[in-house]
Each structure stands twice: as C-alpha cells, then as structure tokens.
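Task card 7
Instruction: Convert sequence to structure tokens.
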Amino acid sequence: MAEEKVFLEEVQGIRAAVKEKEKIIADAKRQAERIVSKANADGHSIVAKAKDKAKEIEEEIIAEGRKEIEAEEKKIISKAEKQAMKIASVEISKNAVRESLKVLGVKNVAG
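Output:
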C-alpha cells in the first residue's frame, strides 16, 4: 500500500510537471506570437517610413533638376535675346543708312 501511495504521488507529480510544462509552452507560444506580431508591425512601419523618405528625396531631386533646367533655359533665352537685339540693331542701322541716303538723294542704294 505504501508503495502504491508513493507510486500515485509520483504519477501525480509527473502529471503536475506535464501540466506546468504545457503551461510554459503555451505562455512561450503566446509571447512568441506577440513578438512576431510586433516585429511585423515594426517592419511595416519601417517600410512606410522608408517609402516616405524615398518620396521626399525624389521630390528634392526633381525640384533641383527643375531649378537647373530653368537656369539653363534663362541662359539660352538671354543669349537668344542678345543675338536678336544685335540682328535688330544691324537691320535698324542698315535701314537708317538707306533712308538717310534716300533723303540725301543718292540713287541705286543696294538693299
């Protein structure tokens, strides 16, 4: 009888240990799921922040490119205006000379 009692106590001890082990495993599993869930959320957050930063950098690059293009356009337009003014100035001078020669009565003015 004493042996059966000892055996029963040992079996109950084993059952309690198994239950404690199952509880520890279940707790560890829940904790692991929380960690994975948080890591997943953190991953999404990091990706979202990276996308935002990439968009910001892209917009800065585009803005800088536009400034460079506008500056180059201004140079080209300024150069074209100067050339147009030179051409217009020469034509005005030629016309002024022709008109002056006509007024002076010079015939056979070329042009």
